[in-house]
Amino acid sequence: MEESYEISDPRVLKVVAHPLRVRLLGLLRGDGPATASELGRAVGESSGSTSYHLRELAKYGFIEEDPARRDGRERRWRARHRYTSWDNLRMSATPEGVEAVRIMHLRQVEALARAVEEYDGSSWSDDWVEVAGLSDHLVSLPPAGLRELEQRVDDLVREVAERYADAPDAAPVHLWAGGFPRAATGDLPDVAGEGPSRTARKDSRTTWQRGDGR
Question: What is the pLDDT of residues 131-153, one digit of tens each?
Fold first, then answer.
């Protein structure tokens, strides 16, 4: 599997921005090769629907038929890349590109919400319950500072994931990182749900999307 699919055409980015396609691609990247029927059961869709969207993903180079694991009745698909990447600045050159990036960011947020909804602490050990969760911060940074932070986080994720890859208690862990500038609104007091908050942190990596502006 290749590391990243670098997209420069907003029309291609919009192909994967479809809510079902992005879920199918995420499952193939995270869980490995699968047939349309298997993916349909996972997402609650008919095999006809998943077959159509899988063909669209294949048409634009996101996935391919798995030659090593052929199924006698239907195709088995596999992801071609670990990540989908795009250049924010290049995409912002056209209204279509701006819209495609906005939709992809929303898809990432939807995936985060789905991961939180599916997480059930009662099904995991105390060690996992203690570290699972989210953090958010509001800090003052220039563009160079946010770029440095993103790169250092990316490097740290790779380093820690490699170090613990063979740990007997390792499990797939969803991990998100991102930053957006906020317009200055003066010194407003924090109110419930609006100020920076902090819970436990997650400590591994995922293999879904990355729109990092580089």
Answer: 999 888 899 999 999 999 999 99
